[in-house]
Amino acid sequence: xxxxxxxxxxxxxxxxxSCQKPNLYLPGEEKVxxxxxxxxxxxxxxxxxxxxxxxxxxxxxMPIGTPTRVVSQEAFWxxxxxxxxxxYRQFVFWVRDSIARRLxxxxxxxxxxxEDFYGVPLENPILNWDEEIDWKDPDYQMAMExxxxxxEERFAYKKExxxxxxxxxxxxxxxxxxxxxKNNYDFKNQRYNGAVMQPNGEMVPIENRSSFLMHxxxxxxxxxxxxxxxxxxxYNEPFTxxxxxxxxxxxxxxxxxxxxxxxxxxxxxxNLKTVYNSRFKETPAHDYRLPTESEWExxxxxxxxxxxxxWGSYYTRNQKGCFVANFKPLRGNYVxxxxxxxxxxxxxxxxxxxxxLYDMAGNVAEWTSTAFxxxxxxxxxxxxxxxxxxxxxxxxxxxxxxxIRGGSxxxxxxxxxxxxxxxxxxxxxxxxxxxxxxxxxxRNDLQNR
Length: 449
Known about the structure:
Elements: H1 2-20, E1 44-47, E2 50-54, E3 69-73, E4 76-79, H2 85-105, E5 112-115, E6 121-127, H3 138-143, E7 167-173, H4 175-178, E8 185-186, E9 191-192, E10 195-197, E11 203-205, E12 213-219, H5 226-229, H6 237-242, H7 259-279, H8 293-301, E13 365-371, H9 376-379, E14 401-405, E15 422-425, E16 433-434, E17 438-440, H10 443-446
Parallel strand pairs: 13-16
Antiparallel strand pairs: 1-4, 2-3, 4-17, 5-6, 7-12, 8-9, 10-11, 13-14, 14-15
């Protein structure tokens, strides 16, 4: 009997172990075991999955046509501050350098990599980022002449990079169109039957799965003239000249970017992270993207219930009587909240909310990925609610509205509330709208697997 027990115990142990952690792999797949770990992204705060009451639940009298509802939101990471001029400038410089290397590669093969690690010729050579560009070399400048402002357009004969040439091209998968039943793969006939709409508005029959790959071409330099355009009868030329380019504004939030430019920045940031992960053979993380309206509001509330502002109070002043955000607190008085600035200010100057997020109220308003629709709260799901529409160039303006949140340095207190929603058109750039990125997280689901 004792001998039988000795045999039964290890057998039961193996059965229990096999039920707990199945060890099944697809043929040819790399066998990976052990726990999975998601490191904390630099400069981002973790927002735990939760439920919250979305909408103006902090008002005694509910605004007409603006309901509230309880929704649940998946966990995600969010930038603890808005994207700054310095951070966005890195994107601009990367695009500038990539175009320069492509032009230099036509004259100097050292700027292109035409063979792989094993010496096999590449069909499409890639840029060699290890080769340094000497911007003062006359030969280099001649090869990059296309990148500079044409001679007849130069001011005081100054040779400068033409910001109109800084165009970023990227691809993204349109899962919304791929998920439509009419676009499903027909296994019986071994082909697709539907059609997809391209970013330019053209309907194209589906040839294969690559038809769901959308091609975007986005000029990415901020519209610095927005400082003059946004305000009539004002003198804002100094901001036009210096706000984005001067090092003194490095830590100020970038403005003058359209919704598409903000989305292009997220895609570029994702590519950098993907390349980094591939070098260390790490499992790639989720993509960087703009937050949905629901994600933004949950993050702004900081886990607090029915609070009007991100700092958990019904007032815009602290106990000492000081304003606690950068907004327009008094009529005509833009300096009451900060004696050092009348417009945007350095990110992170005020205290963060309980989630560790700065400037969720005021400073600059922020783009979200959500399309603006007055009755959205009545139609969106109560799980990860969102309403997206990728507007085409010929769509009417009402279809190009995107939700912006948080209010800005020019707005009164109502617009910096956590529940206030408003909109701007996706193809416009404003001196009071910036953005921050988010990234979905399954950390709690996967870390113990």
